[in-house]
Amino acid sequence: MGLLERLRKEWFILGIVLVIAVARLEPAVGVKGGPLKPEITITYIAVSAIFFNSGLSLKTEELTSALMHVKLHLFVQIFTLVFFPTAIWLFLQLLSITPINEWLLKGLQTVGCMPPPVSSAVILTKAVGGNEAAAIFNSAFGSFLLGSSSSVPFTSIFSQLFMTVVVPLIIGQHSSRQVEGVWLYFTDKFLWVCSVTVTKIVRRYIKDWLERKKPPFGAISSCVLLMIIYTTFCDTFANPNIDLDKFSLIIIVFIIFSIQMSFMFLTFLFSTRNNSSFTPADTVAIVFCSTHKSLTLGIPMLKIVFAGYEHLSLISVPLLIYHPAQILLGSLLVPTIKSWMVSRQKALKLTRQPKAPVKV
Q1: Environment class of residue 311 by beta-carbon count within 10 Å: exposed (0-12), middle (13-18) or buried (19+)?
Q2: Which of 162, 219, 309, 317 is deepest in the core (most CB within 10 A)?
Q3: DSSP string covering 276-294
Q4: Is the torsion defined by CA of 295, 300, 306, 307 positive or negative?
Q5: What is the structure's pLDDT at 183?
Q6: Other C-beta atoms within 10 Å of 244: how many?
C-alpha cells in the first residue's frame, strides 16, 4: 500500500490530529461566542443535521424495533445511572488515601452520575455502522431522564432535545402514516399540519434526490464529528479553570482514560456473552452509550449543585477533560470496532447458513 493510499484510508485519524493541533494554536476561533459560534452551529445546526441524516437513512420499522428493544435499553440505563456511579464511588475510596486533590476526586464522582450525551455516542455508533436507532433512543432518553429529575430547568432540556433530536429525526422519516401519528401525539393540530407538510416536501424532493445521488453520509458524519472535536478542544484549551500543576493534570487524565477503557471493555464483555442475545450492532451502541457522559447537561448541573463553592472550578475539571477524551478515544477506536463488527457479522451469517447435505 502506497503512502498516498494509506493517508487517504486513514484521513479521519489524521483529521483528528490536525483539528486538535489547530485548536491548540488558536482556541479563540472555536470557543463559545467565537467566530464559529459553536453554541449555534454545533449545538443546534450540526446536531440537527446528524439526526436529520439518521431520519433519512433509518426506516421507521428500525426505529420502532429499537424502541421495543427493552433489554438493550435497560442494560444501557442501568449501567450508566447505577453501575457507573457505584463503581466510581468504590474506586474513589481507594484514591482517597492518595495525595490527589479531594475536589478533583469529587469531580470524578460527579462525572459518574452524568447521563450520556445526545450527539457523540450517536455519531460514533453511526460511523461504525452499529445500531444507530438504539443509540438515538438511549442518548436522548438518558439526558431526558436525568435532566427531568435534577435541578436543571426541565423546559430547556425538553425543548432542546425536541428541536435538535425529535424534529429533524421525524422530518427525515418517510413512512407517512406512522410519522404523522407521532407528530399528532406530541404536538397540537397546527404544529401537526406544519410538520406533516415539511415531511412530505422532504420525502418528495430531498429524499428522492438523495436516493439518486447517494451522497457519502458516513464521510459527512465523520466531518461533523471532526467539527465537534475541534470546538470541544478549543473550549478545553481556552478554559481558565483547567489550571492545575502538571502532576495532578497528568494523573487525572490517566485516570479518566483508564476509566473509559475499562468500562468500554466491560460493556463489550457483558454484551458479547453467548447468552446475551445482543447483535454485534447492538454491542457497538451499548459500548458508546454506556460509557459517554454529557458535558452540555453536566456543566449546568454542577453550577446548580455546587453553587457558591469556591472549588467549583476544580470540581468541573474531570468533566471538562472527560468530554474531549471520550470523543478522541471513541474516534480512534472506530476503525478497530468496525473491523470487529463486520467480521463478527460475517461469522454469524456463516454459522446460520444451512449445511449442504453430504452425498453418499
Answers
A1: middle
A2: 317
A3: S---HHHHHHHHHHHH---
A4: positive
A5: 46
A6: 17
Q: Which residue has the cell 429533524?
A: 168
Residue 31, pLDDT score: 85
Smallest CA-to-CA distance from 338 within 9, 34, 58, 51 is with 9
Q: Which residue has the cell 444507530?
A: 132
Q: What are phi and psi of 114, to 5 degrees?
A: -80, 150
| Residue ranges, the chain, pLDDT below 50 | 174-180, 182-190, 192
Crossing angle between the packed helical segments 312-352 and 295-305, to the nearest 10 degrees = 150
CA-based R_g, the chain, Å: 21
Cell numbers 482556541 correspond to what residue?
Answer: 27
State how far the alpha carbon of 148 is from the alpha carbons of 67, 158, 251, in Å.
20, 8, 34
Q: What is the largest CA-CA distance in the chain?
A: 84
Q: How confident is the model at residue 55, as a pLDDT?
A: 63
How far is Cα 270 from Cα 290, in angstroms, rounded to an integer?
A: 12
Angular region, 308: left φ>0, alpha ψ -120 to 50, beta rest: left
